[in-house]
Design goal:
Layout (H helix, E strand, L loop, with lengths): L1 H29 L9 H15 L22 H13 L3 H26 L5 H10 L2 H9 L3 H16 L3 H11 L6 H14 L6 H19 L7 H13 L16 H21 L5 H17 L6 H13 L8 H34 L2 H13 L5 E4 L4 H7 L4 E2 L6 H6 L1 H12 L2 E2 L4 H5 L3 E5 L2 H15 L5 E6 L3 E6 L10 E2 L1
Parallel strand pairs: 1-2, 1-4
Antiparallel strand pairs: 3-7, 4-6, 5-6
Helix pairs in contact: 1-4, 2-3, 2-17, 3-4, 4-5, 4-7, 5-15, 6-15, 7-8, 7-9, 8-10, 9-10, 9-13, 12-14, 13-14, 16-17
């Protein structure tokens, strides 16, 4: 009787036990610094704070040169809504965001273990290690937080209900994802690969489930508080990744990873799938479906490093769909021991290395100094020409000023390519009459980072000041930034050009 009770207790609490371990592991990293480990989190915090103050935001005038200034399309709507209770009850918004990230990861971990248990997968401890340590680049994305972590938990449930041919949960989960993270293409691709992988079975119920996924996605796109502007927003956010404008700069996470990083990031999942292909027999349709999807995501990863967010979970599920217990005992034990050793002795140090590098960049107190100076010494609503990738830090600290763009350069490019080109050429120092551009675009200030990518622009402006130009002056500087002030000019008399 006692053994039965223990077994029932374990079955009930197993997902929560793994969730607790995962949360404790993540918390060690999150609370090692008073700052966030990724700057996008500052944007989500500030949007949630503005929700509490103003209600749902339909415009983001702080991104003055972006389409979001006039019609804000929130791709993380539900993610930010779920964050509101943390923000309401916890005085420190950064601590609140970190707690939300940790609990989200716990929920996704519990979702994974629950699904594996329902599928009858053995050695769930191994797949937990796979999820936690399988790729140092994947874990770095987990540290960043965002809606990606919630998406993972939903995705595991989505896969389970899909293979069980439960169309209603699939429909609802596909709908919900549209308000959490712009990753609906992963759901659609999963449905497509499952249908193709099971085509010999001629089971229409799986196709019905796939159409339920499509229906949920379409409902999420059409039934959106930003209607009708969400259509263009989703096209820019998702379609822009595949049809990238030639004159638009690449963002880091959508650029190809460095060779060393790319190989070390995918070594474990690729090794596991290769091993199973070499030693396995009689592969199930599920395994083959997810194996094909993993190969596609691997190819995509070498084009855009962000694809690791999906590659590792799909590869994990693929390996889980192969019944490892059917392998000979010696091979099975060797696989589990060798895999665990690689994860603990090789992948874990890689995670620590990435973490240290990220931690070194996390301290943005100098950014806050610059944002505070602008708030105290400029007129409310005055425009600041600042690089789009520094926007979240300044926006979080200072909503007194308006900025150029934020989060994604495609937003300003879509609004006005010529103005985007001028602003970009100023920041890169590649324009003629560079010192005239901010005033021409209507900016009163520019914030330039004292770093190689802004060195030419800073040098050119100082030359202009030293030559007697009274229309620009340096007004503030710290160890990271220099701020210039520009006088308004008669735009008919200036014609700055990008080279």
């Amino acid at each position: 009787m006692t053994k039965i009770r223990i077994l029932k207790w374990f079955v009930l609490w197993e997902p929560l036990a793994y969730a607790f371990i995962g949360m404790a592991f993540l918390a060690m990293f999150q609370f090692s610094t008073p700052f966030l480990l990724d700057q996008d989190g500052y944007f989500h915090i500030k949007v949630a704070e503005l929700w509490l103050e103003q209600g749902y935001l339909t415009k983001l005038p702080w991104m003055s040169e972006a389409i979001m200034a006039d019609h804000y399309v929130d791709f993380h709507l539900l993610f930010q809504f779920l964050f509101l209770p943390f923000l309401f009850f916890i005085s420190d918004p950064i601590v609140a965001y970190k707690l939300g990230t940790i609990l989200s990861f716990g929920a996704s971990t519990a979702s994974l273990i629950w699904v594996l248990r329902k599928l009858g997968t053995k050695y769930r401890w191994f797949y937990f290690l796979f999820f936690l340590l399988g790729s140092h680049l994947f874990f770095l994305r987990v540290l960043f937080g965002r809606g990606m972590i919630l998406f993972l938990g939903i995705y595991f449930l989505f896969v389970y209900f899909h293979i069980r041919k439960r169309w209603l949960p699939v429909f609802l989960l596909s709908w919900v994802v549209m308000y959490i993270y712009p990753s609906f293409l992963v759901l659609l691709a999963t449905s497509l690969f499952l249908v193709i992988g099971h085509w010999r079975e001629k089971d229409l119920s799986l196709s019905v489930t796939a159409f339920a996924c499509l229906g949920g996605v379409l409902l999420g796109i059409f039934l959106h508080p930003s209607f009708p502007y969400q259509f263009k927003g989703y096209w820019l956010e998702v379609g822009g990744r595949f049809f990238h404008p030639m004159n638009l700069e690449e963002t880091g996470e959508w650029s190809p990873p460095a060779k060393v990083i790319s190989m070390s990031s995918v070594l474990f999942p690729v090794s596991v799938l290769t091993f199973l292909i070499l030693v396995g027999r009689n592969f199930s349709s599920r395994f083959l479906s997810f194996y094909a999807f993993s190969v596609l995501l691997l190819i995509q990863f070498f084009q855009a490093s962000r694809s690791i967010e999906y590659l590792l979970p799909v590869a994990l599920l693929c390996s889980a769909f192969y019944p490892i217990r059917t392998l000979p005992l010696l091979i099975r034990q060797g696989f589990l021991v060798a895999g665990s050793a690689i994860l603990i002795l090789w992948s874990a140090p890689k995670i620590l290395q990435d973490y240290r590098h990220t931690l070194a960049q996390a301290d943005i107190s100098l950014d806050f100094e610059a944002a505070d100076w602008l708030e105290k010494n400029s007129e409310k609503g005055s425009k600041v020409l600042l690089s789009w990738d520094r926007f979240p830090r300044f926006f979080y600290r200072n909503t007194h000023n308006y900025y150029y763009n934020g989060m994604n350069p495609i937003y300003s490019f879509a609004k006005d390519p010529s103005r985007h080109s001028l602003a970009r050429s100023f920041l890169e120092g590649s324009a003629e009459n560079l010192h005239l551009i901010p005033a021409f675009l209507g900016f009163s200030y520019s914030v330039l980072e004292i770093a190689p990518h802004n060195a030419k622009a800073i040098e050119t402006i100082f030359k202009s000041i030293n030559s007697g130009d009274k229309n620009v002056e340096k007004v503030w500087e710290n160890a990271r930034y220099v701020i210039f002030k520009f006088k308004s000019m008669n735009q008919s008399n200036i014609e700055p050009k990008s080279k």
